[in-house]
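REQUEST
  id: r-88c1
  op: predict_structure
  target: YceI family protein
  payload:
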Amino acid sequence: MKRLAILLALALPLAAAATDYTVQPASSTLGFSNTFQGESFDGKFGRWTAAISYDAANLASSKFDVEVDLASVKTGDSDRDSALPGSDFFDVAKFPKAHFVTTGFRQVGGKVIADGTLTLHGISKPVSLEVTFKPQADGATLDVAGTVKRLDFGVGTGDYADTSVIGGDVKVTAHLQLAAK
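RESPONSE
  id: r-88c1
  status: 200
  body:
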């Protein structure tokens, strides 16, 4: 009996361990959408890193840690692309990176929500993202979606605080192709 208890004690940490994944950058995207003067636009970040550890059966062992190089932002509009890294928006000279790290995961009905802290523009606030994880033979796909209130992070304040001109709610999305480590 004592032997069985020792075996179970050794096996439990293994059962609770999430799988670590490597992001496949060529087939992964980190993007956002917003509005400018009532017209929708999409953007993406060309440089970012993500440490992903995930177990759909044991969310308590899962974690995300994502760092974004804000200077790598592209929207397809040269005026907007040159303005976003500047001091009126991301201010990459002072705040070159955004950082999101999970604080926990929860199941809400059939959805998984990743709760975490986003640090952007020198301000840290809670952000929640909806997670869709699909295992595959050689890894998985991970899709996340959520909304960030740009003014809560001091992005586009002053002359750009009018949310009827630049939308206040920024939709954030990611599609990650993952390979198990």
